[in-house]
Amino acid sequence: MRLSVAAGLAAAAIVSLFGTQGPKSMPQQESNSSSSPASSSADLVLTKGAIYTGDPQRPRVEAIAMRGEWIVAAGSNDEVHKWIGPKTQVVDLRGAFAMPGFNDAHVHFGYAAAEKMAVAIEGARSLEEFQRRVRDRLSDFTPGEWITGRGWDHTLWPEKRFPTRQDLDAVSRDHPMFFARVDGHVGVANSLALKLCGITRETADPPGGRILHDPKTGEPTGMLEEDAAMDLVRSRIPGLSATQRRRGIELVIAEASRNGITSAQDNSDWADFLVYKQLKSEGKLPLRITEWLPFTAPLDQLEALRKQGGSSDPWLKTGPLKGFLDGSLGSRTAALLAPYADDPGNSGILRMDPDDLKKMAIERDRAGFQIAFHAIGDRANRVALDTFAAVRAANGERDRRDRVEHAQVVAAGNIKRFAALDVIASMQPCHLLTDARWTDARLGKGRSVDVHAWNSMKKHGVRLAFGTDYPVEPISPLRGLYACVTRELPEGGPAGGWRPQEKLPIEDCIRNYTLGSAYAQFEEQRKGQLAPGKLADIVVLSADITRIPPHELLRVQVRMTLTGGRIVYEER
Ligand SMILES: [Zn+2]
Question: How high is the pLDDT of residue 12?
């Protein structure tokens, strides 16, 4: 169902994300305005909706009026009607459900952009489909730029033969290309790539690798086997060019808008931040971004980046310092207090020396930085808490909002320390959709830990922020909400949920994903609830997620996304 959009009187066009208008500032008062709303009408009104505000004073309304970036009224259709003037754009929600826009507290947009610029060949059912998928992406690259990707599998094709350089040349001779097979052990290059890398019929096989040749002509076929041979090409492939980086980021942020994300807290490179800045200056940034800085960088460099990037603009600013204390549970590199149950000689890897960590954290905290530690295992979480305790002891009390990213496995008793030290647990419920398959094997029985312990955190008064770790997991917040309420795998089960005592009611899951994430970036005063005086960051969904059976959450669609009173995505 399309939402209907109309202007009060004039036929105003829908506000275009990529039009000439930049983000609007606060509205100017009309010269003859009185304090009555009729003389200072809204720019945009959502009406006839089922709107969940997240505001305990008034949890449900039918209509919202916005001026510039801000909400000026929220109430019944009648109450908000008086804000509609001749130039007001009116969106009839036709009963659709709307709520505060999602705030993803943990993403890696730069990494996702690089993935977007690679061509996905997984699942192609024929050589022709492989060629088509590459051809469809040609316009994303300028001539001369490398095109890469992976995932082809010739055993799925009717031909059942390896692809050749000629197969790729038929798609383009203007771009060097290299595509690895699904297993990563072999890959195919086109003629231009072979030429640029100096691979001819005379090139000898490198030790441990093989260059395949046409039995008739003796020319290379384009197929390279094993790392040693593939590296002859791969070592020559440059990183993303500036235009590719921008194109990748545009694809990523458009995907975020399609998923109802109006704010993201991002761990990417400074070059990515500069692209966001450029997009913002062109009025093309559809969501708000807080950029993390690397904890281990020298302090003077961090201070320079903070100054250069700013720390107060609600659209784009620098934020916490991100430090890595361990790895991941899946790869058995998360730092545990006792060895892995399925790898008894291994307790994971603590990536920093605890004493160095304390020294650096105290110094960076004193310079006014917020600190966020990646900690997955119970040992890494304990070290994070010890460090935050040392910081407080050294530098005294202030509103510092220390964070632990992931906080997946926490030793018994340590959740209380999160609360006592007022450390935010920035967690990703969607990880459970993958991890629940093997976490019990990693941890074994009888270990005294809390795992993805959202409800225990809540009961102890720990503040939670939610996100996805995109692109490690898809950016869809609905997957996270589904995991949060059910603790079941995407296909359902285990029956009743995995460690079901840690489920949360949907209202809590939503709050963590909106207001909770806003708190983690010092923005809870203006984001995370729909009420007058708050930023107009809103998502419209295909169903009332507070009332549907939890198993239907994965089928809910995003209908419309508004950031700062602008429609940045609308379902077609
Ligand atoms: Zn991450």
Answer: 38
- Cα(328)–Cα(406) distance, integer angstroms: 10
Domains and CATH numbers, the chain: 1-101+528-572 (2.30.40.10), 118-234 (3.10.310.70), 243-526 (3.20.20.140)
Distance 105 CA to ligand 1 centre (A): 10
Residue 237 CB contacts under 8 Å (≥ 6 apart), including other chains: 146, 148, 176, 178
Separation of 172 CA from ligand 1 center, angstroms? 36
pLDDT in tens, 100-142: 999 999 999 999 999 999 999 999 999 999 999 999 999 989 9
For ligand 1, the distance from its centroid to the CA atom of residue 107, given in whole angstroms, is: 6
- Phi then psi dihedrals of residue 560, to 5 deg: -160, 145
Please give the pLDDT value at position 19. Answer: 29
Helix/strand/coil for 340: strand
Q: How many CB atoms lie within 10 A of CB 196?
A: 15
- Which amino acid, residue 311? S
d(CA 351, CA 271): 25
What local confidence, expressed as pLDDT, does residue 16 receive?
32
379 touches 348 (CB < 8 A): yes
Cα 473 to ligand 1 centre (Å):
10
**213 CA → ligand 1 middle, Å:** 42
